[in-house]
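Lab notebook, bench 4. Still working through the backlog of constructs that have no structural model yet. Next entry is a single chain of 288 residues. Request: give me the structure tokens for it.
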Amino acid sequence: MILPTVYRIEQKTNTSTAENPVQWLFLDLNAFFASCEQQENLALRGQPVIVVQTLTDSAVAIAASYAAKAFGIKTGTLVRDARQMCPDVIAVQANHRRYTEYHERILKAVDTCLPVEKVCSIDEMACRLMGTERQVTVARELALKVKRALREQVGECLTCSIGIAPNVFLGKVGSDLQKPDGLVVITKKDLPGILLGLELQDIYGIGPRMEQRLHRAGILNVSQLWNATPFQLRRVWGGINGVLFQQMRHGVDIQPPPPAFRKASAISMCWSRSCGPKRERTILRSIC
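Model written out:
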């Protein structure tokens, strides 16, 4: 994970206390593109759906419904492979204007509950909690209110997983722990226990290449990662980003880059250039 300069300097004092242990609500829309298509088309609801740029066997899925994921289909799966995994899979051509419109509607719905401070990508956003909202019971109620707002104002197919935590980083991790339609609270008291059952690549910011670098440094699991010193992680990351990563993992309120910084840029580039299947596969391999 490379932190652009603008994010490196955005470090804030973590003022979480026993009475106010959480500071952020992180929202991750579940299978967003596929869910938009299912909301628009009743016949697609509950079905294994993949969203593709072009309706060809050589195209790759840029999104998959949870019914499709149950067969092992995921972002980057070739259509021909998806059909082998699930003969009944339904390929739908992407409609990016539709997804943008749903994104705007979702922002408005969330804003009726609490302000969205950071739009991290088309399907992820973060809300800073203030005052009594930082109490876990209040934050939970806010999260449930957000879920109701999406269901009532946008559509029943648009579900989200929410992570509530001391910082955006752990909020993102929390949102990944329970899908679909999850709600996970992480406080400092939960650390590191709540993380120890994860694989290294389950931690936001660690992809295949970073995992290889960690392995070469003798860090093979999340427990060893948790106990690694700032000096060790600085060497692994090749600079200050390793130290920042450790602080975020321990609950310090340092803002990371948008959760899909590279992913969002790559997919947007693919959309804007109307790239072909070969280009799609190259981009998706680099971000998956």
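Notes after review: The first strand starts at residue 24 and ends at 29. Confidence is low (pLDDT under 50) at residues 1-13, 258-274, 281-288. Flag for follow-up if needed.
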